Amino acid sequence: MSTLQQPAAGATTPATVTEATTTQRDPRDRSPRASRKNRKPVDGRKVKRSGLLTAVMVVFVVYSFAPLFYLLVNSTKTQASLLSTFGLWFGGDFTLWQNIVDTVTYNDGIFMQWLGNTLLYVVVGAGGATLLATVAGYGMAKFQFPGRRAVFAVVLGAIAVPGTALAVPTFLLFSQFGLTNTPWAIILPSLISPFGMYLIWTYAIDAIPTELIEAARMDGAGEFRIFFTIALKLLTPGVVTVLLFAVVATWNNYFLPLIMLSDPKWYPLTVGLNQWNAQATGSGAQPIYNLVVTGSLLTIIPIVVAFLFLQRFWQSGLAAGSVKA
């Protein structure tokens, strides 16, 4: 008679193997059979959502976009409906296109002249400030010379001084040279950017390896060639970041042109629109609030487009050098 053999102690049957495999499966298994609902992060912590932080961000977004929405809505209204309807919603006739035409043609098209002045100040002033800051910051980062620490202290001190505190001394200085009420009164002060220089300085220290510069020198490359063919390409994120800051500062500059310029033909948009707004007060007032609002909307469009176009360089420029390997 045949005898059934029992498995030896400790032996593993196929059923046992299957059961062990099933029970020992990683609960974080990412196979389709694993439940998405029960998954947890690898470190075991649960992801928590803060209702308070969400509410704060919602308030911040509303606070940021409310002025833009106000400009967009009220640019579609006539002078009468602007003063008689709710400011944060449309009302009356939709006259956006007519307001734009009236804005650019009012007073013999002075708005377009102000726009041209602003572009001139931005291109020459902000562009020159970016170039000077890039050259100076690169030189401070990669060259050793006597007085380097003193220059560093002066740059930090210049960053701490607000521009409005220097406006009156700058006016007195420029008046001695007969430069007031000229474009140079706006362009020359805009060429100096201590913060831009400091930003390029700190960025160039890690962005440009010293060994690369030394290798280029051994190959016979001059300093200007090294800067324009090697260093400038590596500094592109930092340069675009400085350019963005300089463009925004020059485009929104108000106090310096206000005290430097007295001829409306040299006004930038900020001072010109304020002059239009002042027409609503005093004897013989001629309020043109609809043109002021429409002009403000047209004024912010170029700077918004520039910011959206350059923000990817701006983000990478700010993050560079923050983490070391």
Automatic annotation (TrEMBL):
Pfam families on file: BPD_transp_1 (PF00528)
Membrane topology value: Multi-pass membrane protein
InterPro entries: MetI-like (IPR000515), MetI-like_sf (IPR035906)
CDD domains assigned: TM_PBP2 (cd06261)
Record keyword Cell membrane present: yes
Ranges of compositional bias, category Low complexity: 8-23
Subcellular localization: Cell membrane
Span of domain ABC transmembrane type-1: 115-310
SUPFAM superfamilies linked: MetI-like
Transmembrane parts of this sequence: 52-73, 80-98, 118-138, 150-172, 184-205, 226-251, 288-310
Location of region: Disordered: 1-45
Keyword set, alphabetical order: Cell membrane, Membrane, Transmembrane, Transmembrane helix, Transport
Protein family: Belongs to the binding-protein-dependent transport system permease family.
Protein's UniProt name: Carbohydrate ABC transporter permease
Originating species: Curtobacterium caseinilyticum
